[in-house]
Amino acid sequence: MLSALLTALILLAVWCVPAAVAETASADSADSANEEGADDPSSSYLYGGIACLKDHYYFFSEAEDSVLFEKPVSGGASVGLGTISSQQLMGDDGSGYHVSSCFLIVWRDQLYLLNPYTQKWYSLLNDQGELELKAQTVKLDLDVMMEKDGDYSYPMSTNARFVMGDWLYFVGSSYSGGENKMCFGRVPLTGGTSQMFEVPSIANACAYGDGKVALFLCDMSALYTGEASVDQLTATLAIFDPESGTLGTEWPVTSDNQMGVYNLRGFCSDGDKVYYQDGSRIMGIDPKTGESKIAAYTGEGMYGGNSYGNVLCEGGYYITAGSGLNQYLLNSPSLEKGALRIFGESGSDTHRNFAKAHPEISVEVAGDYSNDLETLTQAMVSDTNPYDVLFLSLNYMPVDRLLQKGYCADLSGDEALMDVARSMYPQFGEILMKDGKLYGLPVDASASTYSVNMDAWEALGLTEDDLPKTLLDLMEFTANWAFDYGDDYSEYFLFDWVNQSSFFSMILSEYLTYIQKKEGKIIFNTPEFEELLRAFEDINFKELEQLHDQNESMDMEKVIFQSYTSVLPLSNFQYMDENYRPLYLSVAEGEEPSLSVTTTVMIINPKTTRMEEAKTYMEYYVTHLPKDEGAITFFQGTPEPVESPYYARQKKETEKQIANAKERLEKASEENKASIRDEISSLEEDLKYLEQNRYSISAERIQYYQQTMLPMLYVERQNVLYSGNQTAMTEISTLINQYIEGAIPRDRLIRELEGRIRLMQLEDEI
After folding, report:
1. Integer Cα distance of 744 and 749 in angstroms
2. In whole angstroms, what separates CA 270 from the centre of its chain?
3. How far is Cα 195 from Cα 749, in angstroms, rounded to an integer?
4. CA separation for the pair 238, 213 (Å, rounded)
5. How many angstroms separate the CA atoms of 27 and 514, rounded?
6. Residues 296-347: pLDDT tens digits?
7. Number of helices followed by number of strands (H, E) in the chain
8. How far apart (Å, rounded) are the C-alpha atoms in residues 268 and 274?
9. Which of 75, 82, 402, 442 could form a Cys-Cys staple with 131, CB 3.0–4.6 A?
10. Is the domain covering 373-445+599-634 a CATH 3.40.190.10 domain?
11. Residue 354: exposed, middle, or buried by beta-carbon count in 10 A (0-12, 13-18, 19+)?
12. 493-538 pLDDT per residue, tens
């Protein structure tokens, strides 16, 4: 209940598509090439991986549905070569397929598109380099790449697909028979029977040259069987000869990343070294000696971004990810300078954009995580790999202690950063101000509160005037729920949960925010806290649980109060568009409500040897925050509404569909006109809805934030209850549980909480 922050990680499946080697990568390119611009399709998600043919890359982009694009290796704009329709990729059963179901390969200096669903493949370019889809007569034996579920077949999830010689190699995950099994095989592109290889612990692979394949070996199944955790996985790299079936020397592959070797991806080779992504690094390993070195920094986060396809050309490593096509030169002389090392950044767009805007500054995100004061300070003074810039949660990490101990650089001499601080709302710009000096800036904020379902509320015969105004009002309504509404409204749920301990935790959290905002410290011996405890004791939780459990399933439309509604960032603040109304409750009558804000701040290690680079990074970061996240939250002024990123594209597509339907209407027979008119009417309603929801953050929402929410905000900091002192926190939790279970009265709880807090505060000051 009072435990420190737990970090949850969600990892996405990775599809790696190494392709043929191009002639050159531009020798003049920076370590991380800049994007051509947001309107360049290569800056969007790319379908089917990326293929390199001679001196151009080829890809399909979500920016332009089903359009094949060509982009020069040496840089320059992407050029659309034409559109491939789903009808052109139709299967024998009449089903149409989008190019997102297919993948690109290069074979014998030609570009192909392969559809695993239909097992058909097509050449894409004619002799003039123009788009010309041409079905191949050679039938490929793709059954080995398919999963079977009864009569239904679908492609297995592949970690690697690449062409070498006349073979299409693949590494995939098969779940047939309820067992997760890694498969490694090859399909002859000249026709004939596919071949499977039995290689234990195969996880990934890439073409190595001379008919050899580089294999990444790691027993991922140990994760599912419970034999190993993520940090216990071990991995090796070895060269495999598919003709003889022999495996060369296995060299250990390691990672400094918190997720270890599980997170390695993007294996490619130039016939000498094997390269792969490891967090924010591109590593190169020599399969002849096992020697491993940093080959480039990607500017991604500690988990490396989501890589959907990789190509290695001479001197250049190309990644397709959620951020589009990114180019990196390998083994650049600038590597000798090392990199600006960032702690706590997860790989945001702002971070990636900095890497692209400042290719002269290599950045690396640390692959570890800790909220322990001693661990952080030791890392900051490390002689080998210190943190230069740190992102720290103000709630859960010892930021104030770091400041007291001199581990936050004084930024007051940097006028640009001071101007940024002054342009923020004071509650944010002054977070790390002390004695007029600036020691850090906020970069992220989140907040949540209870909300009420107004449809359900009004169904009870209640109005907006009846809504709880204070925490005591809510507790009184809860105590009377069974008597007042339980029988007549048995199909309704008071909360989306019923749990006595969680309810107390909510009370405690609201009280702590209130008292710290009011007094600047934690005090339990107050009339307000005692009154909250009295109200808590009046609630019959067993009765509430019985009412809650009488329904077999929970219909969220019948839930009165939701326990979690995100109101920051503002893009999550949906109540003006939906029927859930946030409840901002004051702790005591006559007091203003308080809204606790979880804030992430950025500081610079005063011992960094890269102070100017660190300041450049900080200034760029805080001035390029996404508008729909931190920018509007932090900065004063009258910002423009933020348009939904999908609005323009969806509007264009819907208008196109309406125009098409109207053309069909003119040519349609009388019996078909009615259905087309219905179609047009439906599309016009879609367009109207789109216009109504044009903005992810409307002008009204910005105004509400500035006028109503800002005065409530309390930027919470780490306190002794969240200090990481596990012994003390266990004692507090035990004490609270004793009270909840009725083992001790409220006066003893208050007295002992007060004593423990005083003792913890004294210990914290030592």
Report:
1. 7
2. 31
3. 71
4. 8
5. 60
6. 988 887 766 555 566 776 557 777 666 677 778 888 888 888 899 999 898 8
7. 18, 39
8. 6
9. 82
10. yes
11. buried
12. 999 887 899 899 999 999 999 999 999 889 999 999 999 999 999 9
Taking the CA atoms of the chain, what radius of gyration do you get in angstroms? Answer: 30
Domain boundaries, the chain: 41-331, 373-445+599-634, 447-595, 642-713, 726-766
Is it true that the peptide bond before 188 is cis, omega within 30 degrees of 0?
no
Lookup: tokens for 612? 């100017």
Q: Which ranges of 624-646 would DSSP assign to H, the alpha helix?
A: 632-634
- How far is CA 411 from its chain centroid? 30
CA 182 → CA 150, 174, 176, 276, 565, distances in Å?
A: 21, 6, 11, 20, 41
Tell me whether strands 437-438 and 595-604 are parallel, antiparallel or unpaired. unpaired
Q: Output the pTM of the full model.
A: 0.80
Out of 2.120.10.30, 3.40.50.300, 3.30.1330.10, 3.90.1150.10, the CATH code matching 41-331 is: 2.120.10.30
Residue from 717, 614, 713, 630 nearest 399 by CA: 717
Q: Which residues pair with 252 in a beta bridge?
A: 236
636 neighbors 423 (Cβ within 8 angstroms) = yes
Alpha helices in 635-745 (DSSP H): 647-667, 670-692, 699-704, 726-740
Q: How far is CA 431 from the centre of its chain?
A: 26
Whether the Cβ atoms of residue 387 and residue 344 lie closer than 8 Å to each other:
no
Task: Identify whether the C-beta of residue 274 lies closer than 8 Å to the C-beta of residue 287.
Answer: yes
Cβ–Cβ < 8 Å for 261, 370: no
DSSP reduced 3-state for 566: strand
| Cα angle 107, 267, 367; round to 5 | 155
Tokens standing for residue 421 = 């601080």
And the tokens for 1?
A: 């209940």
Q: What pLDDT, on a 0 to 100 scale, did the predictor assign at position 462?
A: 96
The whole-angstrom separation of Cα 187 and Cα 210 is: 18
Q: Could you write out the DSSP letters of every residue in 237-286?
A: EEEEETTTTEE---EEE---STTGGGG-EEEEE-SS-EEEEETTEEEEE-
Residue 597: strand pairing partners: 715
